[in-house]
Structure formats: structure tokens, C-alpha cells
């Protein structure tokens, strides 16, 4: 059974966006980000530019919340 984890994140600057994509690219599971009606691949810098960064983004990762990925993006997770 596949584990899926969903959290809210906020990417404030373009540097945050580039850093997030760099971190996401290190992992072999799917990562999607959703803003409004748009859902993009969290590993795609071009896709990320389609999102409204003024709003919180919904992140869906096809892994468990205990995966090291979530430690690496902890600063972006909305508490």
C-alpha cells in the first residue's frame, strides 16, 4: 500500500522555489504542488512558476511523513 502525505507549505522568494526544487529532485517519489486549480510536479522549475506563490501551497508527497524529505523542507511547512 502506497503512503501519501499532504502538508501546506509556503515558498516566499524565488530562492525558496529554487531550493525546494533542488531538494525535491533528490528523492525518487512523486511530489506535487497545488495552488488553486493548478497542480504541478514539485521537481519541475518551469511548473513551479505557474503557481501563485502569494498563497499557501498544498504539497502531496508519495511517501510517509517520517521521510527525510520533510526534515529538509521543514522551514517551508506551515505549522
Structure description:
With 79 residues, this protein is of the alpha+beta class. It has a single domain, classed as 2-Layer Sandwich (Histidine-containing Protein, Chain: A), CATH 3.30.1340.10. The chain has a 4-stranded antiparallel beta sheet, with no helix packed on it. Strand 2 and strand 3 form a beta hairpin.
Q: What class do helices, strands and sheet pairing give?
A: alpha+beta
Q: How many domain units? A: 1
Instruction: Tell me the total number of β-strands.
Output: 4
Mean pLDDT: 95
Highest-level CATH class: Alpha Beta
The name of the CATH architecture is 2-Layer Sandwich
Order of helices and strands: EHEEHEH
Shape: globular
Helicity level, as a percent range?
25-40%
Kindly report the spatial arrangement of strands forming the biggest sheet: 1-4-2-3
- CATH homology superfamily: HPr-like
Provide the β-strand percentage band.
15-25%
In whole angstroms, the N-to-C terminal distance is 27 Å
Radius of gyration: 11 Å
| Total helical segments | 3
Q: CATH fold name, please? A: Histidine-containing Protein, Chain: A
